[in-house]
Amino acid sequence: MALESGSAILNFVEARRAEFEEAHLVTALHRLAKSRDGHSLLGNAVLRDLIRSLHVRISASCSNASSQVVTPRHLANTVWALARLSANEVRLTQDISSAALMQLPEFKPQELASTIWA
User: Fold this and answer.
1) 99: Cβ–Cβ under 8 A, 6 or more apart, which residues?
2) What is the pTM of this model?
3) Half-sphere exposure of 109 (CA within 13 A, CB side)
4) Beta strands of the chain (E only): which ranges?
5) Where are the domains of the chain?
């Protein structure tokens, strides 16, 4: 399904949110960042919930007790999307940095480049 506008992406997320796993959340945020109207939707409640859900997962992966690990690709795509949207998510970005440092040897060159750019 090719959704072009940020509004269409958020409508899809809202309708199907219960079915979303980590990869779906990251992909939705990444697609939103690439959309022409993504910047204008930063205050949207669905987008805030999407970012909050990703933050919960990333924070959990930083915990030593957690068996849940967010992949380097998901970390890179999330931080890239946040930067592209100019989303001021300081705590989330700090948690992404912590998670990335723990997994640094697993990062591929493109993931490193995206993370550094962000």
Assistant:
1) 58, 61, 62, 70, 75
2) 0.90
3) 0
4) none
5) 9-117
